[in-house]
């Protein structure tokens, strides 16, 4: 019986503050992608400006989520497994988001189609990182 109980693991939900910081990344990057699509279809420069501001907001809030995840990996000393993948996905999302922000700093004609492609990649990374982050991490035995 003791062997079965020791093998059973529980999933812990992320800390509420970490979950709140993580919850900003996906919707803000998704809003930037929708704005990029609107700009690609209309060429109204305000859509590009709106996308740039949404990306800046996403980078601001997700930077704290990235720091939290990296500190958690260092604190638990578990680079392998779900925590390490989650931290690396968040870091990749943030770096590609930063590159996307720099691309959006160009004028409207120069940012397309690179800005749109980077927005798609960033949204996908944010989605996968949020999925893994909200799935929880493996904790102690039940």
Give an account of the 3D structure.
The chain is mainly α and 142 residues long. It has one domain (16-136). Helices cover 81% and strands 6% of the residues. It has six helices and two strands, in the order αβαααααβ. It has helices spanning 2-7, 16-42, 45-76, 81-104, 108-111, 114-135; strands at residues 9-12, 137-141. It has a two-stranded antiparallel sheet. α2 packs antiparallel against α6, α3 (45-76) runs antiparallel to α4 and α4 packs antiparallel against α6 (114-135). It is elongated, with a radius of gyration of 18 Å. The mean pLDDT is 86.
Protein topology:
Blueprint: H1 2-7, E1 9-12, H2 16-42, H3 45-76, H4 81-104, H5 108-111, H6 114-135, E2 137-141
Antiparallel strand pairs: 1-2
SSE string: HEHHHHHE
The residue fraction in helices comes out at over 70%
Question: Average pLDDT across residues?
Answer: 86
Structurally, the number of domains stands at 1
Which parts are unreliable, with pLDDT below 50 for 5 consecutive residues or more? Answer: none
Specify the oligomeric state: single chain
Characterize the main sheet.
2 strands, antiparallel
Output the number of helix runs. 6
Radius of gyration: 18 Å
Structural class: mainly alpha
Number of strands: 2
What's a concise summary of this model?
The protein has 142 residues and is mainly α. The protein has six helices and two strands; from the N terminus they run αβαααααβ.
What descriptors fit this protein?
2 strands, 6 helices, 142 residues, single chain, two-stranded antiparallel sheet, mainly alpha
């Amino acid at each position: 019986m003791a062997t079965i109980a020791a093998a059973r693991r529980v999933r812990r939900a992320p800390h509420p503050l970490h979950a709140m910081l993580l919850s900003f990344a996906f919707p803000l990057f998704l809003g930037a992608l929708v704005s990029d699509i609107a700009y690609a279809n209309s060429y109204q420069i305000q859509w590009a400006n709106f996308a740039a501001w949404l990306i800046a907001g996403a980078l601001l809030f997700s930077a704290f989520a990235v720091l939290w995840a990296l500190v958690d990996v260092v604190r638990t000393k578990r680079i392998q497994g779900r925590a390490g993948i989650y931290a690396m996905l968040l870091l990749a999302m943030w770096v590609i988001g930063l590159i996307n922000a720099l691309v959006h700093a160009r004028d409207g004609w120069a940012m397309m189609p690179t800005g749109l492609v980077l927005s798609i990649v960033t949204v996908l990374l944010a989605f996968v990182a949020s999925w893994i982050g909200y799935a929880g991490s493996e904790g102690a035995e039940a």
